[in-house]
Structures are given as C-alpha cells and as structure tokens.
UniProtKB/TrEMBL annotation:
Residues 36-295 form the Glycosyl hydrolase family 92 N-terminal domain. The lineage of its organism: Bacteria, Pseudomonadati, Bacteroidota, Flavobacteriia, Flavobacteriales. One of its GO terms (biological process) is glycoprotein catabolic process. Residues 302-766 form the Glycosyl hydrolase family domain. One of its GO terms (cellular component) is cytosol. Transmembrane segments: none annotated. This is Sugar hydrolase. Coiled coil: none annotated. Monomer. One of its GO terms (molecular function) is carbohydrate binding. PROSITE patterns: PROKAR_LIPOPROTEIN. It comes from the Bacteria. It comes from Polaribacter vadi. Its cofactor is Ca(2+).
Length: 771
C-alpha cells in the first residue's frame, strides 16, 4: 500500500514536471517576434529597403515597384533613379507591379526581375502611357490599404478593385489576387521592366507556354551584374483562357515554335523586350493564385524548386510557414526595452540583417558560378550578394554570434567564388554569379579571419589563406600593384588613394591572422609588414592621413574637410582618416596622444560641416550627419567607440546612445542612410546590446552603452547569454559597472568566448559618467 502511494505521488510529480516543461515550451513557442517587424521602416528617402515578402536569406524578394513616377518622364526613363535602389519609395501613390528580385539597402541599383501585374478591363501592355497617350497598366494605391509584415505583403490596387497578397518560400513567390467579376481579367508578365533601367539592359528574354497553367522562361540582363540570368517557372491555380505577348524590339527570332494554340498564338516568345499576358474570366471575389519559382540554373530547376517548396495551393499555409521561419530567426535575441517602440526598431533592424546575403542554389544544390558554368555545392549551401565593403564591419561579425552555420556556408561560397574567378580573387562586391568590383579593399579576408579567431565554421583554413594571399597580390586590381611597389597607393596613380591604403593595410592584418592560425609564420610576417603601410600616408605636418604622390611628397592644396577628390571615397580625412582598426593605440599616439585624440573626436561630432563639402554625394546626406560624423555611411561606424582608446571611455557611451536615439526610429524614414545590405542595422543590434566589433579579426568587442533593459541570446551552440541592466533609463546612459557571471570587469572590452560561453552580463547604468 505504501509503495502504491509513493508511486502515485511520484507520478503526480512527474506529470507536474512534464506539465511545467510543456508550459515552458508552449510559452516559448507562443512568443511572436514578427509582430515587432515593420518592413516599412526605411522605405522613405535613402534607406533603400523594400517592403515586400521574403523568407530569411531567401532567393525571392517579392515586392511592389513604384519607381516609374520618378524614373519615367513623358514615357521615357530619366536619370533620377538613386532613390529607387529597392524599387519602392513610400512617397509614391502608384504601383506598376510586383518584382521577384530586389536589393535591400544598397547604394546602387539592379534587379527588379520578372514583374507581375494583375489588371481588369481593356488589355493595356504599357506601364505608363500607351502609344495613343492613354493610361498605362499602373494602379493607384493607398498606404491605408497596405500591409507589410515579415513574410507577407498586401495592397489594394484601386484602379482594378483587386486585392493583391504576396508571400514566399525561399525560392518561390506565392501570389494571391482577389478579382472582381469580369470577363476581362488579366495577369501581365513584364519582362521589360528593370530597376535602374537603360535601353540596352535586357540582353534576351524567352517565354514558353507549357500548357494552359504552366509557363517557363528566363531573362538575361547586363546591369550592375554584367551577365545575369534568371530562370523561372510559373504555375497558375486556374487555367487561363487565352494568352499573348507584345515584343518591343526589332530583333528577329527565327526559332521553331513547334505548334500554335487555337488563337494562333505562339507558345514560344523570344526577344530582347517582351510583355506577355494571360486572360481569365473571374467571378466576384474569386482568387487566382500563382506560384512563381526562380532558379539560377534552368527552367527545369525552377520547376523542381516550385514543386519541392510549395506543392499545394494553400496561400495561408505558406505565409504561416514563412512567418514561423522568421520567428525562429528573430527569437535568437529576445529583448525587453525601455520603451515599447524600441522593440519595433530592434526587431526590424534584426529582420534587415537577414535579407542578404541570399540563397543562390536550387533544391538539388546546383548553382551558376562566377565562371557561368553550373556547379553543385558539396558540403555547403551557396549564397550570393556580398556587399563586403559594408558588411565585413558588423554584419558578418553579428553572424559569428547568431548565424554561425550560415556564415560558415557564406565563407565556403566566397572560397568557391575565388576558385571560379579568372582573376583568382575572393569576392569584392558580388551578386548573381557576377563580380561588379564596387568599392575598395578585399574584405572577404576580414570575414574569414573573424570567423577563424572566433572558432566559427569548418571551412579549410589553408585553402582560405591561399585564396586570401592570391587576392591580395593581384597587381592589376585597383592599385594593388602600386601599393606593393610604393608601400602606399600614390594619389597621382589611383583615385581614393588614402582610403585604399588604409583598407588594404587592415585587410593585410587580417590575412596575417589567418596565416597565424595555420602556423604559416612566413606569410604572417609578410602581411604584418604590409599592415603597417598606413604609416606612409600620415602627414605629421598637418596631423591627417593625406594623399601622397608617387615622388614621395604629399599633395598640395589638401582640404581635410572635403569629400571630393581628396584621396578618400565617401568620406574625408576627418572621419575616414581614423581608419586603422588593427593598430588603434598606435594611431592615437600618432595623432597626438589620448587627450588630443579625444578632443579631435569631440570636434568631429560638434563642428559644422558646410554643404559644399558633401554636395553631389548620394551616400552622404544631412539626415545621417552629426557634426562631421557621418553615421549614414559605413566608414565611420567604429568612430563613436574610439573614445575607448583614450581615457574618456564614458564619451563613447554617451555618443553611442545618442546615435541610437536619433539615427534610428519607427517611421518610414527610420534609417538615416542606406541600410547597405544590413550593415546599418547590424550596428544598431550590437550597440543596443552594449558592445561592438571595432576590429573584425580580433576576439574583442568594445564596450558601449546598452539600450535594452534585458536580452537573452539563444546561441547555436546550445548556450544562453542573458544581458541585463540595472537602473536603465533614457537618462542613464553611462556604465558604472559591468559584471560577467558575477565577476566585476575592469576593462573596456569583452571577449567573444565570454559571449558564446553563455551566462549573464549585468550592466549597472548611471546618469553620471564613471571617469
């Protein structure tokens, strides 16, 4: 009897434990972080982000295109396109359709592939005006009837009384259009439209009607990606009753069409510029759904992607699955904030860090390589869109905390890129099996070194060193030969000479770290010597990094405030000249010592910068400037943390908190500059947590001022890190004490393993600086 009672009590205890565990798991599962994501943040002015639907790191970015109001003038494209790098501006009131590829936050434009537009009434195939001067197929819309969420976008097309809803999987865009009753309902496929269009951007387009509900094809363009092919497969939920197309170029296609349909339409359509249409009869409230799959390889690959990822017609199921994927990624950092609105800013920033790089392979692992051949990934997932001049600074370091598996795959993708490159170079700024050579430096080496020092990934370190050394010795690339010969980049031989010298010197330091990790002391020594070349562009007479000529003299008529033609790219000597992240102690000493350098930083943040110094700079706008500090552009993102290399660390804390409060927000203009493929947002995530990777390739993070009240980092290694604050408030921006697992930290940095080991960080905040 006693045994029965004991067993009964034990059973109750076990049931209670199971119940508590179930409640805990249920509570965790019930947290919806997607509700704090607002894709509209940054869609105004220069944020250059898109509001449409996508999956985390997904190949498809299905988003509305509104840019014709500026890009078109009297039926023709004009040059004012910079605002429309993502194809959308919040100020617009008309939509011309929904494209399947879009950049997020870049400073240059491309993509906008494969535009879809549903219409009702007379068939119109021109977006703005017809040849007769009548209205094109665009539609008015209102933001009141527009919804943008993680993985979902909805808008009412007022001219046609059509409700448009969009969601995606990784490789497939899922459209759902609710039509009115009509015998003249159409879905248009515009293969002419591009973001940043020019007359010769399209190389060739091909469309094949497989049957009354399946269409396949591809388009090749020569934009920023000089030879980009996007293959697709479309499947309609309802057979179309007829179809056709209009060709806008005079190129003759002599291919064999094979057969005709009953309307004498060609089932194959080819040319440089084509718009196709598919006609339907619809009842009031009838939904026509369309699955639109992409592939970098072939139409057959696109069809395989379509069937593998969305084999059904349940729109809501796909939407919910994608939002669950977003919730899983967003839940890697759980935060409580001082103000509720700050959660929206935080999780939207975290969302923006996961829009690129993007998946770039089919479900069978095949992808198009830089050599334009078809490869198959082995032991990794292939990615593309590497905006490395931006993202090596904070985005990839953030991935080394919360996206280690993906960052490992990204590095393997970079190594594959290097092997496929005829120049034997790691990516500089690459996308869609193309290298566009944008910006300076060879910063893939930084991404690799940062992963190695933080013990992230299983990529081949020796292979990575070989690839890095090869990249750093391509003499004909962007002044590298002169850099090796002169030990700096001469200003009379190359533009942006000082910026290049500084960036190359840092990258060489990262290569030395890679060499050190594999025990190659010879390469380590060589690249440590090269990492000192920044000394050669410092002019002790004026105290600035300055442009130097091939004869060894510094250039005359140098203005350290000017951002135009002074040896720097997208910056000046006041801000870009502070870029020696690998030897900051030496840089501070070189520039007059700690006190003088601290005063220099004070002046940087408080001085007035005349408009003439930044005129005609698309990437430097007043919205992102504090004094002469430009937060809206990447070269200075480490600068607020440089007080940590003086005796005034508390000034970093005040500056960082002020930047978070003023340069980010929940409005459509809540980004003060291009998000630059997630870099601007990654800065905010790190800074909100209280630390920042000033020197990628090092295991240290500089301390700042946490904005959160509490954060839990759910790490891939199974550990959990809790970051909490005491006395946190809007006014209490200074850190009076930091403990890690109960131990007081008497230094102004934390170590990577202190994050990854989990445990608890406690920041004690105050309204008085701890000097």
């Amino acid at each position: 009897m006693i045994k029965k009672v004991v067993f009964a009590l034990l059973a109750i205890v076990l049931v209670s434990c199971d119940s508590n565990q179930s409640k805990k798991e249920s509570l965790s599962a019930s947290k919806d972080f997607t509700k704090y994501v607002n894709p509209m943040i940054g869609t105004s002015k220069m944020g250059h982000v898109f509001p449409g639907a996508t999956a985390p790191f997904g190949m498809v970015q299905l988003s509305p295109q509104t840019n014709f109001e500026v890009m078109f003038k009297e039926g023709k494209y004009n040059s004012k396109t910079y605002e429309y790098c993502a194809g959308y501006q919040y100020k617009d009131s008309t939509i011309i359709g929904f494209a399947h590829t879009n950049f997020s936050g870049t400073g240059h434009s491309d993509l906008g592939d494969l535009l879809i537009m549903p219409t009702v009434g007379n068939l119109v195939l021109d977006p703005i005006k017809t040849e007769k001067g009548e209205k094109g197929f665009y539609s008015k819309f209102s933001h009141e009837n527009e919804i943008a969420k993680a993985g979902y976008y909805k808008v009412d097309l007022e001219d046609y009384k059509i409700k448009a809803e969009l969601t995606t999987s990784e490789r497939v865009g899922f459209h759902q259009y609710t039509f009115p009753k009509s015998s003249e309902s159409h879905i248009l496929l515009d293969l002419v439209y591009n973001v940043y269009h020019h007359d010769n951007k399209n190389v060739w387009t091909f469309l094949r009607v497989e049957n009354d509900s399946i269409v396949t094809g591809y388009r090749q363009t020569k934009g920023w990606a000089r030879t980009k092919k996007v293959f697709f497969a479309i499947k309609f939920s309802k057979p179309f009753k007829s179809y056709g197309h209009k060709k806008y170029d005079k190129t003759t296609y002599n291919g064999f069409y094979g057969r005709f349909d009953e309307s004498n339409n060609f089932p194959e359509m080819a040319g440089k510029d084509i718009r196709a249409y598919f006609n339907f009869d619809t009842n009031e409230g009838e939904k026509i759904k369309m699955k639109f799959a992409l592939s970098p390889v072939s139409a057959d690959g696109a069809m395989k992607n379509l069937e593998a990822e969305i084999p059904h017609w349940d729109f809501n199921k796909t939407k919910e699955e994608t939002q669950e994927k977003w919730n899983k990624e967003l839940s890697k950092i759980e935060v409580e904030t001082i103000e509720e609105s700050q959660k929206e800013t935080f999780y939207t920033a975290l969302y923006h860090t996961m829009l690129s790089p993007i998946l770039y392979e089919d479900v069978d692992g095949k992808y198009r390589g830089l050599d334009q051949n078809i490869h198959e990934s082995e032991g990794f997932t292939n990615y593309t869109i590497f905006s490395l001049w931006d993202t090596y600074r904070a985005l990839h370091p953030l991935f080394n905390v919360i996206q280690q598996e993906r960052n490992n795959d990204m590095i393997k993708s970079m190594l594959a890129h290097q092997e496929e490159s005829v120049h034997h170079m790691l990516p500089i700024w690459s996308h869609y099996a193309n290298e566009n050579w944008c910006m300076i430096g060879y910063h893939a080496t930084s991404v690799i070194a940062d992963a190695i020092v933080k013990n992230v990934g299983d990529f081949d370190k020796n292979r990575a060193l070989k690839a890095s050394v090869a990249t750093a010795n391509v003499r004909y690339f962007d002044g590298i030969g002169d850099y090796l010969d002169y030990k700096y980049v001469p200003d009379d031989k190359s533009h942006s000479s000082v910026s290049k010298t500084l960036e190359y010197a840092y990258d060489d330091w990262t290569i030395a770290q890679i060499a050190k990790s594999v025990g190659d002391s010879s390469s380590e020594k060589t690249f440590l010597e090269r990492s000192e070349y920044y000394n050669n562009v410092f002019n002790p007479k004026n105290g600035y990094m300055s442009p130097k000529l091939a004869d060894g003299t510094f250039r005359k008529n140098f203005d350290p405030l000017d951002t135009h033609g002074q040896g720097f790219i997208e910056g000046n000597a006041w801000n870009y000249g502070l870029y020696v992240p690998h030897q900051l102690d030496k840089m501070v000493e070189m520039m007059g010592g700690k006190e003088h350098f601290s005063q220099h930083l004070d002046s940087l943040f408080t001085m007035e910068l005349d408009d003439k110094f930044i005129d005609k700079h698309e990437d430097i706008t007043r919205d992102g400037i504090i004094g002469n500090y430009v937060h809206g552009n990447e070269p200075g993102h480490h600068i607020p943390y440089l007080y940590n290399w003086t005796d005034n660390e508390y000034k970093t804390q005040a500056r960082v908190r002020m930047i978070m409060d003023t340069m980010y927000g929940t409005g459509v203009d809540g980004l003060c500059g291009n998000d630059d493929a997630g870099q601007m947002s990654a800065w905010y995530i790190f800074s909100s947590l209280g630390f920042y990777p000033v020197t990628p390739g090092s295991n240290q993070y500089a301390l700042g001022s946490p904005l959160i009240k509490n954060a839990i980092l759910n790490l891939e290694n199974g550990n959990t890190l809790e970051i909490s604050t005491e006395n946190q408030s809007k006014e209490n921006v200074y850190v009076s004490k930091l403990t890690i697992n109960g131990k007081i930290i008497n230094r102004n940095y934390i170590l990577h393993n202190e994050i990854m080991n989990g445990g608890k960080f406690v920041f004690t905040m105050s309204n008085q600086p701890n000097k």
